[in-house]
Amino acid sequence: MMSRKYFGTDGIRGRANGLITPELALKVGQAAGRAFQRGEHRHRVVIGKDTRLSGYMIEYALVAGFTSVGMDVLLLGPMPTPAVAMLTKSMRADLGVMISASHNQFEDNGIKLFSPEGFKLSDEVERQIEQLIEAPIERHLARSGSLGRARRIDGVHDRYIEFAKRTLPRELSLDGLRVVIDCANGAAYKVVPEALWELGADVVSIGVEPDGFNINKECGSTSPEALCRKVREMRADIGIALDGDADRVILVDERGHVVDGDQVLAVIATSWKEDGRLAKPGIVATVMSNLGLERCLKGQGIDVLRTPVGDRYVLEKMLTDGYNLGGEQSGHIILSDYTTTGDGFVAALQVLAVVQKHRRPVSEVCHVFDPLPQILKNVRYRDGKPLDHSEVRSAISDGERRLNGHGRLLIRSSGTEPVIRVMGEGEDRVLVEEVVDSIVSVLGQIAA
Question: Which of 68, 100, 102, 271 is catalytic?
Answer without folding.
Answer: 102
